[in-house]
Amino acid sequence: MKKQITNVDKEKEYKEYVNAKVPKPNYIKNCIWAFLVGGVICAIAQGIMNGLKNSGLDKTDSNTVTVIIMVFLGAFLTGLGIYDKLGKKAGAGSIVPISGFANSIVSPAMEFKREGYILGVGAKMFSLAGPVLVYGFGSSVIIGLLYYFFNK
């Protein structure tokens, strides 16, 4: 008597096949790369900030100029295609710093460049960063209101 093959057996066999073929990530290596790249990005920003403070800017102005420079560097390196390659290797180590924010704005804009500057670049520029900005602004307003009402 032959054993009947059911859909459940086929699904189980397919899942086992897929699990055997899917590459397993090396979490330790990925964490080390994220830590190193994120640390290098932060060390560069700290070096820029220290240089600006030593040139005579006060703390607030040097912080502001450092953020502007890091956003510019992130956008510039994205435009050259370097930041995306770095992101594939470093993962969160390249996304978490402020330069990753610039990358999240410039990447979609570059992808839709051929559709024109208004409907392509302008419309798609904030497709990824837009929800992040809305959430950030919205949560800061809510926290500000809570702070105002509870500290009267």
List the helices and strands and how they pair.
Layout: H1 7-21, H2 27-54, H3 59-79, H4 82-90, H5 92-95, H6 98-111, H7 117-124, H8 129-150
Helix pairs in contact: 2-3, 3-6, 6-7
> How large is the count of helical segments?
8
Q: Alpha-carbon distance between the termini?
A: 82 Å
Estimated share of beta-strand residues: under 5%
Strand count, sense and closure of the main sheet? none
SS class: mainly alpha
| C-alpha-based Rg, rounded | 23 Å
Question: How would you state the average pLDDT, rounded?
Answer: 83
Instruction: Quickly count the domains.
Output: 1
Low-confidence stretches: none
Keywords: Membrane, Transmembrane, Transmembrane helix
Pfam families: SpoVAC_SpoVAEB
InterPro entries: MFS_trans_sf, Spore_V_AC, SpoVA
Protein name: Stage V sporulation protein AC
Task: Describe the structure in your own words.
The protein is mostly helical. The chain has one domain. Helix content is 80%, strand content 0%. 15% of the residues are buried. The mean pLDDT is 83.
